[in-house]
Amino acid sequence: MSSRRFALAAGAIALAAIASPVLAQGAVAAQFRWLTFAVFGVIISITMYVTYVAAKRVKNVADFYAAGGGVSGLQNGWAIAGDYLSAASFLGIAGLISLYGYDGFMYSVGWLVAYITVLLVIAEPCRNIGKYTLSDILAYRNNQKAARIVGALSTITVSTFYLTAQMVGGGVLVKTLIGIDYEISVMVVGVLMLAYVLFGGMVATTWVQIIKAILLVTASILLVILVWTPYGFSLPGFLTAVIGDADVQAQVALLLGDAGKNMSPTELGQRFLEPGLLFKAPIDQISLGMALVFGTAGMPHILMRFFTVPTAQDARKSVIWAMAIIGGFYVLTLFLGMGSAMHVGAVKIKSIDAGGNMAGPLLAQYLGGGPDSMLGNLFLAFVAAVAFATIVAVVAGLVLAAASAMAHDLYVGVIRQDHVSPAEQVRAARIATVVVGAMAITIGILSKGQNVAHLVALAFAVASSANFPCVLLTLFWKRCNTGGIVLGMVVGTLTAIGLVLVSPNLSYPLAVKAAQEKIVAAETANLAKANADLSAATEAPAQDKLKAAIAKSEKAKSAAESRIKEIGSDRTSIVGLEKPAFDLRNPGLISIPLGFLAVILGSLLYRDKRSEDMWDELYVRQNTGLLLAKPVAH
Amino acid sequence: MVDTRGMDWKAIDSRPEFQALHSKKMGFLWGLMIFSLLYYFLLPIGAAYFQDIYKIKVWGPVNVGILFALSEFVVAWALAFVYARRANSVFDPMAAEIVRDAERQMGGRK
After folding, report:
1. Is the pLDDT reported for residue A594 higher than 50?
2. Residues 88-107, chain A, touching B (beta carbon < 8 A)
3. Which residues of B touch A317 (CB under 8 A)?
4. What ipTM score was computed for the predicted complex, to two decimals?
5. In Å, how far is B92's CA from the nearest CA of chain A?
6. How far is it, in rounded angstroms, from Cα A44 to Cα A208?
């Protein structure tokens, strides 16, 4: 099969691109960069070999989309963890904990609790009645065409938001870690992911996700053992060291500003373990929590994983395993983040990446012996490679979800009305994969330098406000019908996107300008005072100190002035608002109830005989698994 | 409705065995679901409005807030365990019996 040779070629190209001489400087020192390439090479080679083997096993469309339904519960549990633990949670949460302490840890909880919803009401029913996509569930009892169109559009929307965030985040990450150009990083991620999905379909995607999850957990356990051993594996012992650390105390003092002026160092340290350093608006927190716990259950690439196991029992088992792995991982993250706050320090973490994403990798470097040691750089290289594998694995799952919506729902289901030969279905799936993959690479490169963090929130907002109400109600509510599904998808998606567009997530030139003007005013005052002090100062050390302060103030002032100049006469955000029309960063609190309301109203206002007639069949099958096709043995 | 695969879904739906499964399962599922949501949202709400309680130190520097956040993990795992046990011991056998009966009837019709 020539496609397997292509898979190997893609791997070789990716390796060559990574190993090509580069100019930019990353977190890895130049003399140790070969180490990073060696570790990357080993991991890429393993995944390419897996794809090569998997490609032989992908014979039909069921293999391509669902690995022939032959994945075990344990394997699927690891694959779900690999699909879910994106760079945002792997690096982002450790970073938040390292910079904000308690609030970062509190943030991680919602990512696990989300799986209770998946376990109780989504995993087993979806396995029992679904085939390859989210739309298969929506189309079961509703109008085929309408349900497939809205389901596919929403799948493509959610996946594209998430995909863009991953591609941009991945590009930045690889650039930061090893100094490859952003564009090349995005291309490498894109080409590798395309190779996995195109040739190995769901079989290869599953194995890449399993390998990535195992690497991630192994790396985390190793680092936690190293960081915790000096304290005899005692939680109070470890945390006492964390809060007694001068870097941690300085970071808390910086975050608290005036409020922390009268606190002792001990009090400042203890404050790191208390809420409120990051989250100031509780309503926004609750809104974010709602998007997480309901949005995960509406993520097309997560739903899709349940079609790869043979029975509802395996689907259940896979969520239990996934919860053990994901939850365990977040508990480990507490130690990684706290350890990084203590050993690396917020100043250094922020100097490489302002969002804190480098907290974990820098801790690895420290634990191995520091930036100048071989072992330290080997550790850093390993964590960097795991981060890279993480991005590729998540992106592969997302591309597969979007491609299946395009090929299986829109092309085969709607345009050709299911009159498509099996061979042609596989071809359609592969063409859609190339289209989505090319789109992901293009968007990734075009979005260079954009702030894409809110796109992950947006993906969860749409999944929780549109997909989740539709899937839940079509499975559990007798009266639900096509009218409800269509209205729910439209209202849920539009309100989620609309509210984000008018929220504080976007940048508002007037507010930015006001903030920068405030900086200019403050620095002008500082300068006046420092200059006055300078003329009064007589001793050389005091004069030098003041001169340094003056230089710093002048630099800050000119930076703020150039920002103001950049904004120029801009007054409004990209949607034409001078200030946010909606105060919450996360729309879930409003858009999720609206999504549910739309499904209910649409169902009550519309009559659909098919939805009513099919209810008994759907409900019996989702609860019992009756007539569930047996997996195809290979 | 009798479909092409020979299943009379309405008849299965109205059988007492299926109705028993339905009512047992729904009460249990939604009970667990509501409990998990309440317990989860208590964490950010408490962090916002009951900070003084979160700050109480109980074990060296370990305070109520950290223990509460850690308990969220334990509770999530416990709920998953409770559900899996109940599903394995009660729901699965009930569903299996319904499937057996239905397949026997379908086999008879073929």
Report:
1. yes
2. 102-103, 105-106
3. 84
4. 0.93
5. 8
6. 10
